[in-house]
Write a structure and sequence with these properties.
By secondary structure, the protein is mainly alpha-helical. It has 19 helices and 5 strands.
Length: 424
């Protein structure tokens, strides 16, 4: 008879003896297995040390991590490198153990690393960081090739190797590398004024614009409008400008990091708060009358049809541009005596010769490496600071002999009408 507490009768001696015999047999089997796993002779001391250190797993001294195949560990490390948001995310994994260090520096892992995985800061630049970037570039990482190419070309003044690394990334259809090479061709960076190749710059911009690069679209649109390096086509230039503005707005609204700003823009429609009579500089308001299409578009009042885009937050700068801005800020915002830096805070490009960049044709107080930087800086700050002057005077009279100091020549991004920038 059973009760809630079990059998109401006491257990018999037969059942107790049977249970004790089963327990004894199980204990002897466990002892035998442990005795078989324990090494004898010289390995006994090593076994005891590993057991105290935690290497004794499952009673047989095995580490199951060592049993994982290398291809599985490489797959996990590739995911970690591709999703890294800062260099420590990958460095800490490599420093975990010897196996992670060996597999973490595998070419497959380095080729998948994101741009933020080697976003080195200027104050932390050293030979080790240089070697790591070179290792990533040799592994086939296009972001590393572009970043190291920009650092070598502008910061370390190694023009040949920097341009070759950017060209390596451009061959792999890297849009920022294509656009950077276009800026070099437009300005003749690294050489003289006669080294400018406008047609090559337009071709590189067209390729980057095809890949969806907003700055390249805007640059190509202005080139087509002004007939700079290509046959003038105002309608096609306007189409590229509208496409760049629309893509810029879509990028901001779909970005997870700018979710709050995007919600604010949608709720308040701040990106539509634009007045055509104040959104463009006075010299552009006059020059829009030279062409009927420009005049019609300028009076519509829609920011998507402007030369500068919508009133949206500035895009996040590339790690290479942040590095250059920090590098030259620590050196007095100058790449050398008489050399200026692009006035757009998110660019960081310096001049490679005197009077390489073009100034604002109204105030002459700012200078830009391209029309894309001029458009971004106009929305961010220069619209409130630009004031017309009678005629700005060149800062460095010594640079006039180089050929870039002809103030009356409208050569460059500003076009023949000088509607935005004028060559210094």
């Amino acid at each position: 008879m059973r009760t809630r507490r079990g059998m109401c009768y006491p257990k018999s001696d037969f059942c107790s003896g049977k249970k004790r015999s089963v327990t004894a047999r199980a204990t002897s089997v466990v002892k035998r297995r442990r005795r078989d796993c324990v090494p004898g002779g010289e390995d006994a001391a090593l076994f005891r040390r590993e057991r105290r250190a935690g290497g004794f797993v499952g009673g047989c001294g095995r580490d199951f991590f060592d049993g994982l195949p290398d291809d599985l560990v490489l797959s996990v490390l590739c995911k970690v490198a591709a999703s890294a948001s800062a260099p420590p995310d990958l460095v800490n994994v490599v420093l975990t153990c010897k196996r992670f260090k060996a597999l973490g520096l595998h070419s497959m892992v380095l080729s998948k690393a994101s741009a933020n995985a080697f976003a080195v800061r200027a104050h932390g630049w050293c030979d080790s960081a240089h070697r790591f970037l070179k290792l990533c570039a040799d592994a086939g990482n296009v972001e590393a090739s572009y970043t190291l190419g920009m650092i070598r070309f502008y910061c370390l003044q190694s023009r040949g190797s920097g341009a070759s690394l950017m060209a390596k990334a451009a061959i792999a259809s890297h849009a920022p590398a294509l656009y950077s090479l276009a800026v070099i061709q437009f300005n003749g960076s690294g050489g003289s004024k006669n080294d400018k190749d406008l047609r090559a710059g337009v071709a590189l911009c067209a390729r980057a614009a095809f890949l969806g690069h907003v700055d390249a679209m805007r640059e190509l649109g202005h080139c087509l409008q002004d007939g700079y390096g290509v046959r003038q086509n105002v309608a096609e230039g306007r189409r590229f400008l509208v496409q760049a503005n629309a893509r810029e707005l879509a990028t901001v609204l779909s970005s997870p990091s700018a979710a709050a700003a995007a919600a604010s823009l949608l709720s308040t429609r701040a990106w539509l708060a634009w007045n055509s009579s104040h959104a463009q500089p006075p010299h552009q308001q006059q020059n829009h009358q030279h062409h009927p299409l420009r005049h019609a578009v300028a009076g519509t009042g829609c920011p998507l049809l402007s030369d500068f885009g919508c009133n949206v937050p500035a895009p996040e700068a590339h790690p290479a541009n942040r590095f250059m801005a920090e590098w030259f800020a620590a050196r007095g915002s100058s790449a050398g005596p008489g050399l200026r830096q692009c006035s757009h805070v998110g660019c960081g490009r310096p001049e490679t010769r005197k009077h390489e960049f073009r100034r604002c044709s109204v105030c002459g107080a700012v200078n830009y490496c391209s029309r894309a930087c001029q458009a971004l800086d106009w929305k961010l700050r220069h619209k409130a600071e630009c004031t017309p002057v009678e005629r700005w005077v060149d800062e460095d009279v010594d640079g006039e002999g180089e050929g870039d100091g002809e103030g009356g020549e409208h050569d460059g991004v500003g076009g023949p009408n000088g509607d935005v920038m004028e060559e210094s």
